[in-house]
Design goal:
Layout lengths: L1 H37 L1 H12 E6 L6 E2 L5 E13 L7 H12 L11 H11 L1 H5 L4 H8 L5 H10 L3 H4 L4 H14 L7 E4 L5 H9 L7 E11 L6 H4 L14 H5 L13 H5 L1 H4 L4 E7 L5 E8 L6 E4 L3 H18 L10 E7 L6 E11 L6 E5 L3 H4 L9 H11 L33 H7 L2 H11 L15 H11 L25 H7 L9 H12 L3 E3 L4 E5 L11 E4 L4 E4 L4 H16 L6 H4 L7 E10 L14 E11 L6 E12 L6 H21 L1
Length: 692
């Protein structure tokens, strides 16, 4: 009976076993299908990521040329020592490499931080570092109540000054190198040294590459400024390799494929045109095994250095103008009452294109080491500093009067000084000028004519020794009109950090009168240049620009490459004025320079290039670097300015000059006029020489 029962249950067990096996195989096949079909691409990408890694190698930046094709900024090749960290490289292996490399090259240790020393001490002294942890803390770590990070921080906190003193000078040199090796990313070349790598160092490292995995010798580049310090502040700077990407823009750069240790433009032209100058990196695919060992490399793209910028600047003219400013500043500083004078600015611009020919500025500073005064470049001051400029703005005032309908051409005003109730002093011109019309008011620089224009804009009525109530909306009317010339607003120049200028906060009637003669709001030299260019260009306000063209890199190092992009002339606005009105202002500007009695005639009357323009003198309060030395009220100073263009009948160049804080209390010679005449003489002399 027992045997029969066993025979009956055997087939049932086998069937059950086969059924279970069938189910398991079915589940396995289903799982494989899911892995293959659903997650196949993900796993393939993971394999590709570990076995085929593309890295990018930087290329030299684009060059900068002046308008005549002369190189301003170039790239100088320099020797460099690099390190490429493999994926599986351990800290101990990097330490051995750093020790070997330290025997072959010299490095500075000044960038080593306290934390670097602590980390290095732990790496050098693992047993002593372990002794910094108590048994109780170790038990907490084993129970996962302390993390690796917390345990490591305890070790750092317990490293003493005596511990760190164990690090010798040789140790610090190894640390300096180790710090550079450890700062790079896997399979991405990291500069270890590119500053003053000697031929001996380059040769020694090249001969010992086999003993230092990841180390290589290569060629790097360095920015070379051929005209330094001319225009240096405008050209800008680039970061160094060990600076890393600027913290405030790191997300921007990383999202565009930059590496954290890439060199980028960090100021002005270098920064403004970073996307153009940076170029396209070389792309190299590293083929590795799963352990991260490089099996081979494949060049995907050779890369291309950055595109070149052709600037609108004429470097011969720029250098000549800077020399004129320097000589005039030093000469004026010898005169009485000029202790606060320390700077001067000049902008030359083509009124019909907006191309900036010269953007020059100089500033006198005291050398902290020698205690002596010296001259430095301050070309940026043309857009970053603003001043009361005086009567130079009167052309805008007259046109504002015409546009608002409060005056019309040939209207005359008696130049008798104005006197208001409650004010101790009269407000007038520098002398009595009769009854000038609009053209004569510009020629003779009548303040009173401009005052009457402002009173009418403010819907006021003047009576001597009576109050002068004005509609404060007049401030907005005047400023809105001035903005159409570029006064008190950004000009749109292709450089960052341009300043608007300061708008006075008071709405007192007397300040509206000051506004129309340039003694209330402040303006930059670039704004003055755009303003006078707008008048010279028959009312078209153009956007000034310092880059003329963007060019592809040339195959021949001594030539310019093909044009990638031309920077077009951009019209920002057209003055809402009648042609007759503009003619009147242009005639007034012409008489300023070329007719006896004009405020610029003494300086420009003999000029053969037919200049037109407007002089400016502003009584202002000093707000420069020496202001902090005194607790009292700021001293009164004289700011001198000049706007001009030539020839008046077919303008090809426009100019603005500002020399702030020239005199205290008394006045003297006019450095603005001397600078202006010499600058325009130089411009036409260089032009004549080029045509011969």
């Amino acid at each position: 009976m027992k045997k029969k029962k066993e025979k009956r249950y055997l087939p049932i067990r086998l069937n059950l076993l086969f059924f279970v096996v069938f189910i398991l195989f079915s589940l396995l096949i289903l799982r494989l299908g899911i892995v293959q079909i659903v997650y196949g691409n993900d796993f393939k990408q993971e394999v590709d990521r570990t076995e085929n890694i593309t890295v990018q190698k930087p290329v030299p930046r684009g060059k900068m040329y002046d308008r005549h094709g002369r190189i301003i900024i170039d790239n100088t090749p320099i020797n460099a020592i690099t390190y490429t960290k493999l994926q599986g490289t351990t800290p101990k292996e990097m330490l051995v490499t750093a020790e070997n490399l330290a025997k072959l090259i010299t490095v500075g240790t000044e960038k080593i931080r306290e934390r670097d020393k602590q980390d290095f001490w732990i790496l050098r002294n693992p047993e002593k570092a372990a002794g910094k942890i108590t048994k109780a803390e170790l038990q907490l770590f084993k129970k996962k109540k302390l993390t690796d990070k917390q345990l490591y921080q305890l070790q750092l906190d317990r490293i003493t000054e005596e511990d760190l003193k164990e690090l010798s000078e040789d140790d610090l040199k190894v640390l300096a190198i180790y710090r550079e090796l450890n700062s790079g990313y896997a399979l991405t070349p990291q500069i270890v040294k590119n500053d003053h790598v000697t031929k001996e160092e380059f040769a020694l490292v090249s001969e010992n590459l086999n003993a230092m995995p990841g180390v290589d010798t290569t060629a790097d580049w360095q920015r070379k400024y051929l005209y330094e310090p001319t225009l240096k502040s405008v050209l800008g700077n680039t970061t160094e390799t060990d600076d890393g990407l600027p913290e405030e823009r790191i997300d921007y750069f990383l999202s565009r494929g930059y590496s954290r240790n890439d060199r980028v433009g960090k100021s002005y032209l270098e920064m403004q045109y970073e996307d153009v100058l940076h170029g396209h990196k070389a792309k190299i695919k590293n083929i590795t095994d799963k352990a991260g060992n490089v099996l081979g490399t494949e060049v995907i793209s050779e890369g291309q250095r950055g595109k070149d910028l052709v600037l609108t600047i004429d470097m011969d003219l720029q250098i000549a103008v800077e020399k004129i400013i320097e000589e005039q500043l030093w000469a004026t500083k010898q005169l009485p009452h000029t202790s606060l004078l320390d700077r001067a600015y000049v902008v030359l611009i083509e009124p019909k294109t907006g191309e900036i020919l010269t953007m020059a500025g100089k500033r006198i500073v005291k050398n902290e080491e020698t205690g002596q005064n010296e001259m430095i470049d301050d070309a940026l001051g043309n857009i970053t500093t603003t001043y009361n400029v005086g009567s130079a703005v009167k052309g805008a005032t007259v046109l504002t009067g015409f546009k608002t309908g409060v005056i019309k051409p040939t209207d005359r005003f008696d130049d008798t000084p104005l006197k208001f109730k409650g004010t101790p002093q009269e407000k007038g011109s520098y002398k009595y000028l009769g009854k000038p019309d609009d053209v004569e008011a510009l020629k003779l620089s009548s303040n009173v004519y401009m005052f009457h224009t402002a009173i009418r804009i403010g819907k006021g009525h003047y009576r001597r020794d009576m109050p002068l109530p004005l509609d404060i909306q007049g401030f907005g009317t005047i400023r809105d009109s001035f903005a159409q010339f570029g006064l008190g607003v950004r000009t749109g120049i292709d450089l960052p950090n341009e300043q608007n200028g300061f708008k006075g906060m008071s709405t007192l009637p007397g300040h509206m009168l000051d506004l129309v003669i340039g003694q209330y709001d402040t303006y930059s030299t670039m704004q003055l240049a755009q303003y006078v260019s707008t008048i010279a260009n028959d009312g078209y306000r153009l956007k000034p620009h310092i880059v003329k063209e963007i060019r592809e890199p040339a195959s021949n190092q001594n030539e310019l490459g093909p044009v990638f992009k031309k920077i077009p002339t951009t019209v920002l606005n057209k003055l809402d004025v009648q042609e007759e009105w503009l003619d009147r202002v242009q005639l007034g500007f012409q008489k300023v320079m070329q007719e006896s009695g004009g405020t610029g005639y003494r300086t420009f009357g003999t000029a053969t290039y037919l200049p037109a323009g407007k002089t400016g003198t502003a009584q202002a309060f000093y707000d420069g670097p020496q202001r902090k030395k005194s607790d009292g009220p700021p001293p009164e100073v004289m700011n001198l300015s000049l706007v001009a263009y030539a020839p008046y009948n077919n303008p090809e160049v426009a100019m603005a000059v500002i020399v702030p804080w020239v005199y205290q209390a008394d006045s003297g010679p006019s450095p603005n006029m001397e600078i202006g005449r010499k600058v325009l003489d130089t411009y036409f002399s260089l032009k004549h020489r080029a045509q011969q």
